[in-house]
Amino acid sequence: MIRKKIGLIFNTQKENAIAVARRLFNWGRENGVDFLLPPDEASAVAVPATDGERWRRESEFAVVLGGDGTFLRAVRYTLCNNIPLYGINLGRLGFLAVGSPDEAEDDIEAIINGKYTINKRSLLKGQVWRGGRFVHELHALNDLVISKSNLARVVDMEVSVSGELLSVFLADGIILSTPTGSTAYALSAGGPIVPPHVPCIIMAPICAHTLYARPVILSENDTLSVVPKGDGERNRLMLTQDGQLGYELLPCDELRVALDKTVSVSMIQLNGRTYYDLLREKLRWGFTGIRGDGE
After folding, report:
1. pLDDT band at 91, cuts 50/70/90?
2. Is the pLDDT of residue 10 over 60?
């Protein structure tokens, strides 16, 4: 029998994630599945570790245990390696990690037996330019966010689309989101819900100081340029990648953002489960609140 090799990433700070990881590892040994664990995860459950290079080379797909934050970390860990990801939700809402821990073994068996499809999710590629010089590049599955630091006041941000000035926003910041990220931070800023198969970029100002500043949907072929104005310590900003990694952004730096045409994320969708099923479940659409409804 040819044993399957499946990557396993989980939140090592959550006892329930550690417990499910141990359960799956033991289940795998009895069912022809070798779960490959990176060093941190392996240490948490006291099993042999797989170094990063071998993990990425041998994993046929990867199971992610945790919330959406753990899933986003897994995206960075597998970036450019075309490893399909399946998330099992041990967090709260869970728009990326959608599987149930109670059904984890059944879901993994379904994937092994080919009862799934692959959804390709677009990534944002951001580049920071300073004084006409390229200084940094980053990718995001959900969003890139420019926000004020603790000492910063509202900031003027000059936004251009494909070389044409769109507006100068006076706001606390700005969110640039993929369709995948439309149900994350952009939603709380008044942005629309966009299904992941619709290629576009969502631009949503944060607490803009005008009634006329509204989220804008831009084409998959557009490139956005955001230049924060001002000078001095009070105008220091943070550029945040998927809500997890932060970089200082100086006044007059330029952030250029577009959908990456060469790199994407492969997400596993089990047969019979759709994106619209997920929306109804997570947003409780159709739930009236009447006692007994949905029971």
Report:
1. confident
2. yes
Is the pLDDT confidence value at 125 over 60?
A: yes
CA distance 275 to 279: 6
Give the integer Cα–Cα distance in Å for 19 and 287: 32
Phi-psi region of 171 (alpha: psi -120 to 50; beta: other; left: phi over 0): beta
Tokens describing residue 163: 């070389």
The active-site residue, picked from 51, 68, 143, 242, is 68
Give one DSSP letter per residue of the chain, joined into a string.
-PPEEEEEEE-TT-HHHHHHHHHHHHHHHHTTEEEE--HHHHHHHT-----HHHHHHH-SSEEEEESHHHHHHHHHHHTTS---EEEEE-SSS-SS--B-GGGHHHHHHHHHTT-EEEEEEEEEEEEEEETTEEEEEEEESSEEEEEE-TT---EEEEEEETTEEEEEEEESEEEEE-SGGGGTHHHHTTPPP--TTS-EEEEEEES-SSTT---EEEETT--EEEEE---SGGG-EEEEETTTEEEEE-TT-EEEEEEEEEEEEEEEEETT--HHHHHHHHHTTT----TTTT-
- Is pTM beyond 0.85? Reply is yes
Residue 287 tokens read as 């739930």
Active-site residue flag, 68: yes
pLDDT in tens, 252-272: 999 999 999 999 999 999 998
Q: pLDDT tens digits for 166-224?
A: 999 999 999 999 999 999 999 999 999 999 999 999 999 999 988 888 999 999 999 99
